């Protein structure tokens, strides 16, 4: 049997190459190539092991005729076109925890460097200036740290900051009150955090919701003299607005490990007093690099040699016998989880997954994992079916599984219910022809809808003429409706409308839909 061939295209700890070889793969380490060089080479490889430098674009994937798996030795996979990889059947794996401690430590190091102006004091001292009176720092003890994002890295930063006797205020819409108590942090909304924090540190992925979370408007709401640390992703801070806020004195210091454009060879922030930066070094310790290199090589080789799937972002972990039966259920489960996640803004302390009829005969674990992956992926693009149950536990989300073997109205049914402050809300779906996922119930209203692509969710008071008005609004804005699914409790009562649309609905159209008579809620939804 020919050995699988793996290319390591970014600088990686040598343990990765050793493990690939030991586990039966041929491995080449060729780093620093241009996209054109990679396109010319990639066709011969079964596996591609990367960090953040290699951008795995559609063009590279199109040339990767033999590629079966991409392994990211690290957390963020924003340098991989996952939809394109999935469409091509290429599994994308990451190592979700291997560099978390290291990155949290970098954030704390940056905070201290800012508080005591260490880089500039070092530079001036070494230049022979002995600037003894030029640097007056601040203590961190007793200060308030505003944590934006309280996931793996954010939680570690919180624990370290509490150890430094700081107060920690956390903004994370997916942080439950119970988990906040467990972490010892005060859960707050963003405006409260902005008003209270002496230091802010960011630990979220870059998503449509987090892009420019420190915008010009939000920077203006901060306490004067704030110090900011970003070791998560460039794009979370509006860099031009940050420069203005530093020049005006609103922000007393900023430390960035990540930039909107990387490599950041120039920036208006460079040279600004009290601005410090590192070249995306958050994960760069010996310990973290050994962790992620060993883990990515083990996972990828196990997949290429034995077919085992671990930490895949676009594929469930499954045995060969279970796979064909469970696959359509997992697609249904993931969509139901995603629907509930997208429609629930409040903290959710409990999620229940109830399988009924034919679904009750199957292994429920992968179904539950798929629901959790869909639900949690709304808040973090690094969630997969393997790490979702673990993350749910970490975040204090109680997961209940219920089985009813007897059939109800459908021969098979998966129901997902979440407990929120507003009460219990549930959605349910079935499989048509045993393979096609369909939503059949949405918050106690019977509907029938295929959850895919871009969609719009509208709750309105049932009244004549509404469907015409929404159709006209979308038509006038060039948005083509694919399917129209309507459900209501009773004529004239509350009705829900789920529309599939051929293109994303822009914010101004959502706002206009909100203004239509009788409309209570409008939300854009997106499904894989
Ligand atoms: N600088 C580096 O070298 C480096 C190293 C590792 C990770 N990272 C980056 O750090 C970030 C965090 O990683 P992690 O492992 O902690 O991820 P995680 O998924 O464990 O945590 C992310 C947290 O962000 C929260 N979140 C999502 N949307 C939010 C929003 N709109 N507002 C507030 N919070 C929101 C989520 O609920 C979650 O708790 C990622 O972007 C990752 O790529 C950077
Ligand atoms: O998401 C990550 O894991 C970090 O950004 C680390 O990136 P790196 O592997 O390129 O250092």
UniProtKB/TrEMBL annotation:
Question: What EC class is this?
Answer: oxidoreductase
InterPro entries, A to Z: ACT-like_dom_sf, ACT_dom, ASB_dom_sf, D-2-hydroxyacid_DH, D-isomer_2_OHA_DH_cat_dom, D-isomer_DH_CS, D-isomer_DH_NAD-bd, NAD(P)-bd_dom_sf
> Which residues belong to the signal peptide in this entry?
none
* EC number assigned by the record: 1.1.1.95
Q: In which pathway does it act?
A: Amino-acid biosynthesis; L-serine biosynthesis; L-serine from 3-phospho-D-glycerate: step 1/3
Q: Where is the ACT domain?
A: 455-527
Which Gene3D superfamilies does the record associate with it? 3.30.70.260, D-3-phosphoglycerate dehydrogenase, domain 3, NAD(P)-binding Rossmann-like Domain
Q: What is the top-level taxon of the source organism? A: Bacteria
**Catalytic reaction annotation:** (2R)-3-phosphoglycerate + NAD(+) = 3-phosphooxypyruvate + NADH + H(+); (R)-2-hydroxyglutarate + NAD(+) = 2-oxoglutarate + NADH + H(+)
What's one GO BP annotation on this UniProt entry? L-serine biosynthetic process
GO molecular-function term, one example from the UniProt record: NAD binding
Q: Which UniProt keywords apply?
A: Amino-acid biosynthesis, NAD, Oxidoreductase, Serine biosynthesis
Function in brief: Catalyzes the reversible oxidation of 3-phospho-D-glycerate to 3-phosphonooxypyruvate, the first step of the phosphorylated L-serine biosynthesis pathway. Also catalyzes the reversible oxidation of 2-hydroxyglutarate to 2-oxoglutarate.
PANTHER family of this UniProt entry?
D-ISOMER SPECIFIC 2-HYDROXYACID DEHYDROGENASE FAMILY PROTEIN (AFU_ORTHOLOGUE AFUA_6G10090)
Question: Per the similarity annotation, which family is this?
Answer: Belongs to the D-isomer specific 2-hydroxyacid dehydrogenase family.
Q: What is this protein called?
A: D-3-phosphoglycerate dehydrogenase
Per the UniProt record, the source organism is Novosphingobium colocasiae
User: What does the record give as the organism's lineage?
Assistant: Bacteria, Pseudomonadati, Pseudomonadota, Alphaproteobacteria, Sphingomonadales
**Gene label:** serA
